[in-house]
Structure prediction request, 180 residues.
Amino acid sequence: MYEALGNGQVIVVNDTTKIAYANAAFYTEDKTFDINKVENYNHLRAQINEQIGSRNYFYAFQIHGTFNKLKLGGVPKQEKPYTEGLDVLIPNRPVFDRENITGTLVGFYCPDFIGKINVAGYHFHFVSADKKSAGHVMEFTDASNLSGGFKRIAKYQFDLPETPAYDSVNLEKSFQYNKK
Ligand SMILES: [Zn+2]
Prediction:
């Protein structure tokens, strides 16, 4: 498992590393596809929509390819007492611009009905073939030689941490998203 640090560096995590939030799936490909060229992220979404068929399931993806321009986002490590919500962290996230880079997109599609417990639509992360660049895929242009696959997922399990910190954290929307 790879971790993209806030400074853009990539490390291999050890088995005892903990993470605040994770999406995971056992991955075996139901179907594979090859796409010669896509103009940008939106174009890839449209191409994948044709591949998956129904948009009422979850899907996991693994897609290899070369990206002429790729914009990756990171999230800096937070320190206690974790007062900033995503409304502050995401607009101020570190951004890494890569050019002519080959690597792998991994990610998920969630149906619109997923609501607030995940991100509806496509959400991809990237790790380069040389394992030196990684992050959240914000945008890309001119991707070529894409070969990928996906697995359809019909079961969704949501696990919460049973810890004192989680017991008492304020998850009300007014706290998380209106803080400046
Ligand atoms: Zn992400």
